[in-house]
Design goal:
By secondary structure, this protein is mainly beta. Helix content is 7%, strand content 41%. A hairpin with a 2-residue loop joins strand 1 and strand 2. The radius of gyration is 23 Å and the shape is globular.
Length: 244
């Protein structure tokens, strides 16, 4: 079911797959200070909106350092096509953690269970920094052979590698989404895991000033006299002006 909403001010009700991802944003948009959590006619929670929504979104999952796991597939977030099993981040050695060296590859993993034999399930990650700025998003449809690959029912792991030397120093929040064919039945886990990135020893060399930018890629530089003419790997690139 595609998500849709019914508005009858001052209240709003959201239905359908993907509705879970909208709860926190809707609470903030409505300016609610108090929330009730109901289940089968019973009031489970009554308190500050942020606390109640947080407990609701975290229900049924086990969180650790750089990892969140749903052990019960029946209650895990998802749809009739898939269920989340885990979201985590690992370093280049394969260790799960929440602190990474800036010059180390970070591997984001989404474990899920595909419930039917037909169609395919894809994944998306979205990364925000501590200021709430979206750093990037990436979809698994960029995987080689994605369109031709078969995907029978079963357990899967979708992996995305964040290259070394890309992220600036700071704290990050990674959101994870699953979707089926044609990007339907989207289910998003906002801020599924959080992690920090710190500078690698010696990477500043002799510079101790401020670094600007949402990302800080370790780009290659080369400075050469123009009167030497273009280097072999620069010919035809159009990057260097000719000598006067």
């Amino acid at each position: 079911m595609q998500p849709f909403s019914y508005t009858a001010l001052p209240g709003k009700v959201i239905f359908g797959s993907g509705a879970l991802a909208q709860v926190a944003d809707e609470i903030r948009a409505l300016g609610c200070s108090r929330a009730l959590l109901l289940s089968r006619g019973t009031m489970l929670e009554d308190g500050p909106a942020s606390d109640v929504v947080g407990r609701y979104l975290n229900a049924g999952r086990v969180a650790g350092r750089g990892e969140v796991v749903w052990n019960d597939h029946a209650t895990a977030p998802g749809s009739d096509s898939f269920r989340f099993a885990a979201v985590r981040v690992r370093n280049a050695r394969g260790e799960v953690g929440d602190t990474f060296d800036r010059l180390s590859t970070i591997r984001a993993e989404i474990d899920f269970r595909k419930l039917g034999a037909h169609g395919k399930v894809g994944a998306t990650i979205v990364l925000h920094n501590e200021e709430g700025v979206c750093v990037f998003s990436s979809l698994s449809n960029r995987e080689p052979g994605w369109r031709e690959a078969l995907q029978p029912a079963g357990s899967y792991r979708a992996t995305c590698e964040i290259p070394e030397g890309l992220l600036a120093e700071g704290r990050y929040r990674l959101s994870a989404s699953l979707w089926r064919d044609h990007y339907q039945s989207l289910e998003r886990i906002a801020d599924a895991v959080q992690f920090s990135v710190h500078e690698s020893p010696g990477e500043r060399d002799d510079y101790f000033g401020e670094w600007h930018g949402v990302v800080r890629p370790a780009l290659a530089w080369r400075t050469r006299p123009l009167d030497e003419g273009p280097h072999e790997d620069e010919r035809g690139a159009g990057n260097f002006p000719s000598s006067p």
